[in-house]
Amino acid sequence: MVVTVNSKIKGRKIIICISGLAGSGKSTLARRIARHYGLKFYSGGDALKAVASEMGYSVSERGWWETEDGLRFIEERLRNLDIDKKIDEKMMEWAREGDVVLDSWTMPWLLKEGFKIWLDASEEVRAARIAKRDKISFEEALKRMKEREARTKEIYRRLYGFKLGEDFRPFHVILDVNNLNEDEAFETLRLIIDRWILKEKDKSSLEAPFSGQI
Questions:
Q1: pTM of the full predicted structure?
Q2: CATH homologous superfamily of domain 6-207?
Q3: 116 Cβ neighbours under 8 A, 6+ residues apart
């Protein structure tokens, strides 16, 4: 079933940002949320992979960021911060159109508007998920994941000054997904978003982040 949200909120465009570190399930859940509510979906990671492909990298659909090519592209982004800056500018344009779900590490900090959700999971849980997805050992998945995150965090520290995975001030909801499977996490998010949408909260209430954790 697809739920159309536009008819439920008078005169307000919907912007939902879903974020979380690698292996948290943010991309999968963001796509499902967009499909469920009939919203447009945009992914910062997909946009960056499109740039990588144009630059000659061999890009795969899933698990690419933890490969040697993916890590080399992150190093290139560190040397040329304009790559990320241009992608973020485009993501902000899409966000301003409204009625979107954004899968992004930067938009929660860069956008004043929108409902912002962080998916929280431990290193061990995330590495185990990556290992299963990519059919590699847990140790190798953990090593690649840490390399990727250290370099990615440095990009955003240099560009914008925030600490990815440490600063949660922009978020309205922090959802602990350590013990939730995909369907359980989706259902929890759906209930949260339904409550936000159906209560038709005014804009000011969305600018004060949720202080607790679910």
A1: 0.83
A2: P-loop containing nucleotide triphosphate hydrolases (3.40.50.300)
A3: 17, 19, 108, 170, 171, 172, 173, 209
